[in-house]
Amino acid sequence: LYTGFFRKSWFYLQFKHLRFAFYGRPKCTKLPRKTKNHFLVLEITRFITHYGMHFLLPGVIAFYFFKENWKKVWLILILTMLVDLDHLLSTPIFSPTRCSINYHILHSYFAIAIYLAALFFKKTRIVAIGLLLHMLTDAIDCCWIK
Questions:
Q1: Ramachandran category for residue 98: left, alpha or beta (phi over 0 → left; psi -120 to 50 → alpha)
Q2: For residue 103, what are the contacts with CB-CB under 8 A and spacing of at least 6?
């Protein structure tokens, strides 16, 4: 099986943690081929949903609710993804089967309560919307994992 070009492609780099979906699960569990392909489709759908909600949905919200300066608001909403820097404090930094809600410091229930409180202040409202949208996206991702 020649995989030279595939291993260098963007698609492989994004989904390399799913190698077992391409080559089968560990030997202890044998699944029918249809189930393996179904798992891969679900993981790709999860990936598209997760990053679509991280990048495209903030743009839709910014354009719909802040028409006069939607580009600036979209940039602010995208910059709220810096909340993911708290992933650097965990070991391993990335785990595809870990739910980040209430695992990382800035994804905790206490932090989410602070983000909700920030909605009531005009100066922090856009940042709070971005942070809560991020938490919603990660919560939906947790539902995909389970």
A1: beta
A2: 90
Alpha carbon 57 to chain centroid, angstroms: 12
**Could you list the pLDDT tens digit for every one of the 146 residues in the chain?**
445 554 545 555 555 555 444 444 444 444 455 556 677 777 888 888 888 898 999 999 999 999 999 999 999 999 999 999 998 988 888 887 888 898 899 999 999 999 999 999 999 999 999 999 999 999 988 888 77
Structure tokens at 96: 């595809």
Q: 124: which 2 tokens? A: 């922090």
CA 54, CA 45: separation in Å to the nearest integer? 14
**Distance in angstroms (rounded) separating the CA atoms of residues 26 and 15:** 17
DSSP string, 78-114: HHGGGGGGGGGGSSSS--TT---TTTSGGGSHHHHHH
The backbone region for 68, taken as left when phi is positive above 0, alpha when psi lies in -120 to 50, beta otherwise, is alpha
